[in-house]
Amino acid sequence: MLSWWESTVTPHVSTSGKFLNLTFVSIATFDQLRPVYVEYFGAHFFVNKISNWIAGRPCKVELVKI
Questions:
Q1: Residue 26 dihedral angles phi and psi, to the nearest 5°
Q2: Which residue range forms the structural domain that includes residue 37?
Q3: Angle CA(57)–CA(61)–CA(66) in degrees, nearest 5?
Q4: How far is residue 1's CA from residue 20's CA, in Å, rounded to a whole number?
Q5: What are phi and psi for residue 49, nearest 5 degrees?
Q6: In a domain, 26, yes or no
Q7: Radius of gyration of the CA atoms of the chain, in A
Q8: Over the stretch 11-60, which tens digit does the pLDDT of each residue have?
Q9: Does any domain span residue 53?
Q10: Strand partners, 14
Q11: What burial letters (b/e) apply to 18-43, b meaning 16+ CB within 10 Å?
């Protein structure tokens, strides 16, 4: 059985996994509590997860649309 929180919030969350080329500076100064604006989508997102970051190569970033 779903809790009130899960039944209220979960259906409205939109997540997306995208491959982005992140720089060393963007990783070093990353603040998980600050939303980011992705111009391509024209929307703000919270970054939920950054997977397998290697300098100069795209890595998978899980975004949660606000």
A1: -65, -30
A2: 13-65
A3: 145
A4: 37
A5: -155, 140
A6: yes
A7: 14
A8: 555 677 888 888 999 889 989 899 989 888 898 999 999 999 998 899 99
A9: yes
A10: 65
A11: eebebeeeeeeeeeeeebbebeeeee
Stated pTM of the model: 0.68
How many Å is the maximal CA-CA distance in the chain? 45
Residue 17 placed within a domain? yes
Collapse the DSSP code of 25 into the 3-class scheme (helix H, G, I; strand E, B; otherwise coil) and give the result. helix
Q: The tokens of 12 are what?
A: 């409205």
Closest CA to 63 of 43, 44, 48: 48
Domain count for the chain, please give it.
Answer: 1
| 2 domain-assigned | no
Amino acid in the structure at residue 59? C
